[in-house]
Amino acid sequence: MDERLTPDFFMVRTLEGIQDLAEQIWPGQPRKNAKPPFAFYIQTDDGEDDALDRLTGLQHTGYQLHVVAADYRKLPILGGKIKAALTALVGQVCPRADTAVCDIAVCDVSEIGTDGDALLFEDVSVRQMSPDLYEEDVLLFRRIYQVDIDYQTERSEGT
User: Fold this and answer.
1) 16 burial class (0-12, 13-18, 19+ CB within 10 angstroms)?
2) E strands along 24-83, which residues?
3) Domain coordinates of the chain in residue numbers?
4) Helical packing angle, 74-87 and 7-15, nearest 10°
5) What is the pTM of this model?
6) CATH code for the domain defined by 3-155
7) 3-state SS assignment for residue 118
8) DSSP 3-state assignment of 81?
9) End-to-end CA distance of the chain
10) Element (H, E) at 49
11) Interior CA angle at 130 toward 29 and 66, to 5°?
C-alpha cells in the first residue's frame, strides 16, 4: 500500500492543520530537543474485521497519541482541537495525493476524479487514556489519547 494511503498519513496531515501542531507530529517518539507543544504516536493495533463467514473489508487501526505541552492549560485546549479534527474525518473519503483532482486533505466522493485508491473513514474515536502526566526530567506535561480508526480502502471506478 502506498505510504500516502494509510490512516496515520491522514491522521498526521489532519493534526498538522492545527496551528500549534504544524510540523510537530512524529511516529514513535519526538525529535530530540522538540519544542512544545508537539505530539508523537505509536501504532497499537491493525487488522481487518471479520464476520462469521468472511472478512468484511473494514480495517481497524489504533494509535496511542501522546500530546506534550510546556503549559498545563494547553493540554485540554489541544485535546479539544485534536478530537474535533479527527472525528471530522468520519464519512470522508481521502484520496491518495497523486490520484486526486483536489489538493486538500479531505475530499468528498465527487472530488475523486481520476483512477486510484482512497480511504473511506467509517468511524474515528478519540479518548483520553491516562491522567495528565508531569514529566519532571524535561519539565513538560503529557496527555495520552487512544485513537481508533475504522476505514475501508476503495478503488475508484476505472481501475
Assistant:
1) middle
2) 25-27, 38-50, 55-69
3) 3-155
4) 130
5) 0.80
6) 3.30.2000
7) strand
8) helix
9) 15
10) strand 38-50
11) 20
